[in-house]
Amino acid sequence: MTSSRIPAEERLTNLVVALMATEIGLTKQQILENVSGYRQRAEAGAKSDALEKMFERDKDDLRALGIPIETIGDPADPQDLREARYRIPQAEYDLPSDIEFTPAELAVLRLAGSVWSAESVSSDAQSGVRKIRALGIDGDEPIIGFAPRITARDAAFPALQEGIERNRVVVFEYLKPGESAPRRRRLRPLALVEYEARWHVYGIDVDVDAERTFLLSRIVSAVKVTAQSFDPALRDGAADRAVAGLESVAAAQNALLEVTPGTEAALRLGRRATPATQGIYVPYVDRHIFADELASYGPEVRVVEPSELRDAVVSRLRAIAELHTQREGVHG
Asked: What predicted TM-score, i.e. pTM, was given to this entire model?
């Protein structure tokens, strides 16, 4: 018997494969009945409204990762979404027609493409595409290049996602900057959100009965999903509240930076910057993490203010310089 517990990241992969395998799109019912991850839960007795809510969250997660899910309404009334179809237009992934590659570049691209060949798609995903075709819906072979974009990058991600889906309290050890030992946290997890290319879990800290946001990279233990449940209604609008909170923190913290034009730093920081007389202003959420990023650019960036951020970047650069000096001494 097939397990109903398909990992969240695998379900997302299967959904993307299905939505890219058809040009005309799939209805919500077709997705829930045929895509692995939803199908098993339906067969295990999950209620239709729970499956529909899961699908809505999955759509939001994929869109947050930059995957363009298109909603197609009734041709006679585009605002009527009762029988809406969903698809991922493959044209969004096509390269511009004026881009050309040399034979050597094409060879490298073919080699990279062979790594993400059809064999890298799970059997469940391939089965889902076959089921979609059995419905009489035509579609090309799915594109596999999206797969790395939806891989969970933090070890804590799957367990936190499980806690959210099952409405269960989770427990983990969390290490804040400047503290010598981690602290045990008990959380009602309500949403996982990506902000500034880093994953955060948002929820209610049980011990203080207040909403908190935690950075996944600072979770230093395995995440335990407990038997203690909470009201699923708490999750309504949680992702929006989480992002709004992070945006509010970032808006209150701006760094004035001088950046060398034409560099990687200028490209990456410029996307979220506003011009200043002396350089650019860049908002940030966490001083320590932002200092790590700025230090990685080396001489391409100089922090004008605030001084606390500048000192944090300088200390990191000095530590790197000392490490190189020590290594040169060993090998000299």
From this structure: 0.52
pLDDT of residue 90: 64
Residues 263, 261: Cα–Cα separation, whole Å? 6
Give the separation between CA 287 and CA 138, rounded to whole angstroms. Answer: 50
**Cα distance between residue 16 and residue 301, in whole Å:** 38
8 A C-beta contact, residue 158 and residue 215: no
Q: Which of 272, 282, 271 is nearest to 304 (CA)?
A: 282
Q: Which of 155, 286, 164, 285 has its CA nearest to residue 219?
A: 155
Strand bridging mode 168-174 / 183-195? antiparallel
Q: How far apart are CA 159 and CA 261, in angstroms?
A: 42
Question: Which band of pLDDT confidence, cut at 50, 70 and 90, is reported for residue 150?
Answer: very low
Of 258, 305, 316, 308, the closest CA to residue 287 belongs to: 308
Q: What letter does residue 202 receive in the DSSP assignment?
A: E
Architecture of domain 157-236: Roll (2.30)
CA–CA dist 182, 202 (Å, integer): 18
Q: Rounded mean pLDDT of 285-309?
A: 90
In the chain, CATH 2.30.30 sits at 157-236
Question: Which tens digit of pLDDT belongs to each residue from 43-54?
Answer: 888 888 888 888
